[in-house]
Each structure stands twice: as structure tokens, then as C-alpha cells.
Amino acid sequence: MTRRTLLSAALGAPALVRGTTKPVNLLVIMTDQQRFSALSCAGNSILKTPNLDRLASEGAIFENAITPCPVCVPARTSILTGKSMQGTGVTGNAAATDTVLDCGPSFDNVLAAAGYNTEYHGKYHSPYKLASTYKNKVPYAGAKVEGAPSEHRQYLDYLDQHVPKRPLRPGEVLSKDFQRPYIPALLDGHITDPGEEPGQGEVYGWLQIPKEHAHAAFTVDETIDALDRMAAGPFSLTCSIGPPHPPFLNVAPYWGMYPAKDMPLPENFQHDMTWSPYRNRQAQMKKYQSPEAIREGLSIYYGMVREADDNIGRLLARLDALGLRDNTLVIFTSDHGEMMGSHGMGSKMTFYEESVHVPLLMRLPGRIKAGTRIAAPVSTMDLFATILDYLEVKAPRTESASLRPLLEGSGASLADFRVSEWFGAQVPNFMVRTKDWKLILGAGAANRSQDALFDLKNDPGEVTNLIGAPALRAKNQGRAGELRDRLVQWLEKNGNPAARTVRSRPLG
């Protein structure tokens, strides 16, 4: 018996498509910083995402999927490993440059051991040791890794071959990320803070690169090439697209595709933050409280999402052309969302819906019923167990729960809440969310951030903190306590020492 056969026997042979001898393949497509509402199939009446809409209509859309952490690297690592921040030890973005930390295995590590051909293309941003079993050299994000290309350098080399550098023209500035000109928009740091070099999150504008050579197109081209190589299967292939993460730059024709003048402001744009956990954060983000600037910011953001959708359409079309549609589990998600003017803020790192509520679509013909909509709360951390369940490869025990029972109509045994975490100083550290309710709170009495309870059914904009003003707090302490109890049980189950301090924290 060969080593590969032994591993397959130990972990479970790859699942077979009904009536065939073909194992089920896996295609994971991710964007970065895309909130749930940035999908037309999620009810957005302005933005059009026809390819993702098609994926949802042919499979399932999860209406209440949350990220395990509203920050890139912790979220991505939890998706890969099925573990919370406590389980992975990844508490911030610095871990993207770590080549030593062993927080696995990832679902791809498990699949590689079971005989799958695995590749990952695009933005990785997880501890690099998890990339050890990919057949391709996954580009690293920061610290130099011997034998692997730099993610940034790889794309710049491509640009140098296809889009020659040229002098700046009047009205243009240089993109530090892409080393090509762009025309800044109202939120851009060159306009809001003249004389200072803007950071990545302060860059907004019209990038002067043809769409076929933009970063999203480059990543999808690399993935399509991989799909052609891997078509014989079984394979696990990830396409990790950078947009709509900053820099917030449109290429033509996406610049102005959704005119700024037509952008409605978020309903909670002028939220009185008196009882908000993020009152101080909002006070530091004055430029996100300009109506004109936010309309233009939303125009750019929607253009970036549409660019990603168009490129995803090319990838799905190639999957179809290769005859792989019917035996490939396709998953689309994002690591976290983006505020973009909601509550007068930008970026992520909050437990508001715009930051923590993410898209999650799944398709597997013959297994997942077309047009399925799941209202129950789920976490993208659950993808680890779900993937291995559908591919029928034995999964190591983690904090991840397979979503297959929900998809196949027998999900009553799954917990009716999910948890998100973030450990910034003096901001809430935990969120526990059911379908209709959300509690946000600090990890203990030492954290002096404001706690918050929201009725998502009647207050989807999260404007009224039901444990903020004293009169409301007295009426809603019972509901808040019930949600805190669920969080404590989850923390205890996962061996998280914060269970004790969360239990003793006075709510309010």
C-alpha cells in the first residue's frame, strides 16, 4: 500500500459524486473586506453582482453569516483551521509574516494528506506554515520566505511587463501600492491631509491601469491557469481576490459605473453615538461624516465589488467549460466587511453589521438544493468542518461545526448563535449573535468600553442600544444576561479563560 493510500485510508477517501467515480473537488473564492449588503442577491438595489447572484440561485445563500473576527489575518486563519483566536493564537495582522507559528492543520493540509492536489492563489495573509502543503509557492505577505515570491512584488513584476510606467499628468498622484498614477477622490489622504503620504486605507480614486491588468484580473488569471492544470482532480483550489480591500481604487469602466450622486447615504449615517461602544472611534473619523465624500466612497466601493464579480464570472465560466461544475463544491465568502460611512465610520474592527456580517454562498449540484436560503446564524469558521464533511474526509476536532445539516434541512442540533472576537484596547472584545439579537461586550471589568444590546429585527441599523440609557438598561438586562450566558458557555467549551471575567462583568 502506498503512502498516499495509507493517508487516504486514515483520513477518509475523497467523497464521490453520486452515480460516478469522480471525487468532489473544492473551489473557494474569497474577496477581502466585502460586507454582506454589497451583493444584489442580498437585496442591494444599486450594486449588481450577476455572477455571485447566479451562484446563490444555483446553490445556497447564508443570510446571517458572521466573521470570527472583523480583522483580516485572524479571520482568514480561523476560516482555514476551524479555530477561534484562542485556538489559533492569531490575535492580529502581524501573524501574516509569521513563518514559525503552527496553528493548523488547515482544511487544505487535511485534504492534501488525503490525496487532493491543493493550490492557493492571491492574498494569503495567514501564518505561512499553513501554506506548506500547497503545490504552488504561495506568495508571502511580509517576512521573506525562501523559495516563495512576495505577493506585492509578483504583481508589480507583472505590471512592469504589461503596463509601462509613465510620468504623472496634471491631477494625478502616484499609487504607492501599484506604482502607477491615480486621480484622487474626496476621501483620499492627498486631499483630506495634504502634505502627508496616505496609508493604504486612506487611498481613494481612479487608477490608471487597464482592467485586464488590474490586480483582481491578475489573481483570477493565475487561478484559471491553475484550474486548467488541476482539472483531472481531485483538487482544492482557492482564489483570494484583493478588492474591495483598500487601496480603494477603481479602474475603468468601474470608475463612475455607480454614480456618486445616485448613492443613498447609509440609514445610520447620522447616528447619535451617545450610547455606542464606538463613540470615540467615530470621533476620530470626521472625514467619514461628509455626505459628498461618502457618496463617492460608496461609488468606488461598489465599483470594486462589481470588478471582483466580473472576474469571478470568468472563473466560473472556465469551471463550466472544463466540465467540472457538477462535481465541484464552490464556496464564496469574504474575511470581514467595511463600514464605508455607516455610523459615520470607515474601515472594519467593529461588531456592527457592516463590519462583521459577511457574504457566504455555496453550490454543489445534486447535494445543495438550488435556491436555498439559510436564516440561521453561522460563522465562516464553520467552513472547515463543512468542507471536510461534504468531501467526506475525516476532520480533526476543532471549534468548527458543519453546516451540512442546515443545508439539508436537519440543523436543529446546531447552536442558534455565533461569536466574533477582537482584542483591541478599550473596545468591545466579544459579540454573540443570534438571528435577531446581538450583544457586544468587553472581556472583563477592566475593559471600560460601553456594552450594547441590539434588536436586529426591529433595529437593523443598530441605532438603539437597549442597555445604554439607564431606563432601557433596566428593562433589557434579562435578555442581555441570556446572551452573555451563551457566550460564557461557548468560552468554557473552548477552554477560553475569558469565560470567568465575562461572567462577572456588569453589563451596561
Any overview of this molecule?
With 508 residues, the chain is an alpha/beta fold. It folds into two domains: 349 residues, 3-Layer(aba) Sandwich (Alkaline Phosphatase, subunit A); 86 residues, Arylsulfatase, C-terminal domain, CATH 3.30.1120.10. Helix content is 30%, strand content 14%. It contains 15 helices and 18 strands. The protein has a seven-stranded mixed beta sheet with strand order 4-8-1-10-12-2-13, sandwiched between helices. Strands 5-6-7-9 form a four-stranded mixed beta sheet. A four-stranded antiparallel beta sheet has the order 15-16-17-18, covered by helices on one side. β16 and β17 form a beta hairpin. The longest helix has 31 residues. The protein is globular, with a radius of gyration of 22 Å.
Short description:
The chain has 508 residues and is α/β, with parallel strands linked by helices.
Shape call = globular
Task: Please name the CATH architecture of the largest domain.
Answer: 3-Layer(aba) Sandwich
**CATH secondary-structure class of the largest domain:** Alpha Beta
Strand content: 5-15%
Within CATH, the superfamily of the largest domain carries the name Alkaline Phosphatase, subunit A
| E-strand count | 18
Q: Which structural class do you get from the secondary structure elements? A: alpha/beta
The value of Rg in angstroms is 22 Å
Count up the domains. Answer: 2
User: Alpha-carbon distance between the termini?
Assistant: 62 Å
Topology, please?
Elements lengths: L2 H9 L13 E7 L18 H9 L1 E3 L2 E2 L5 H10 L3 H4 L18 H7 L3 E6 L28 H12 L10 E2 L6 E4 L4 H4 L11 E4 L7 H16 L4 E6 L7 E3 L28 H5 L7 H31 L6 E7 L18 H4 E2 L1 E4 L8 E3 L3 E2 L3 H8 L13 H4 L10 E4 L8 E4 L3 E5 L10 E4 L14 H24 L4 H7 L4
Parallel strand pairs: 1-8, 1-10, 2-13, 3-14, 4-8, 7-9
Antiparallel strand pairs: 2-12, 3-11, 5-6, 6-7, 10-12, 15-16, 16-17, 17-18
Helix pairs in contact: 8-10, 14-15
